Amino acid sequence: VYVFTDCVFFFLPGRGFCYSIINGPTNVTVLAGSEARFNCTLSVGWVILIWLSNGNPVLTVINSQGAVETSDRFTSQNYTSSNGFTSELIIHNTQLSDSGKIECSIQQLSESSFAFLSVQVNGSLFIKNSTLAVKENSTVEIVCEALGWAPAPDIAWMTNDSFIDKSKYVTQQSQGSNDLHNALSILTLTPTDTEVLTCLADIEALPNPQNATVTVIFVNSTI
Description:
By secondary structure, this protein is mainly beta. The protein is built from no helices and 21 strands.
């Protein structure tokens, strides 16, 4: 096999092959435990394609043989058209350690394409009390805790379906175990009426923020 800048030539009896990557993979963000899919399209006449995860080969596709899978966590689906060949790498049961560079290579100098996989973890979210009774002119602190996330979630608060100004609460993030993150958000307010407060935790991979609620019951002072 002779490697050139623009083509790879595989010399078989009387034949040579030249091919390239037409479209490479794009960045993907998923929740841990779900599937991640990457596509790589090669021009007509392709011979071999190798998928790498963080520099380690995980799956090889050979034109004359098909996919060579060495792990049931890394499989592929293949599509052929008049314009070329597309290999779809499927990473099953994604793990936090899968995050990083996903590369499509055709064993050619400077001829590879890559994208990044971000695996995120949806942790727990809770407010210790589901209801609170607050007297008139009293200030209360509501504590919302997010545990075991990756990355640390963005925290926001709502009252009766309206967002609360960020100046009303303070959020601190901390490092947890196993590369996970925690967040603690403290909301300070002086209620003037009974209201439902909602703590929202969000990361990119979540279709909707996770939430926890508390009902603050306003109690008039005894005359």
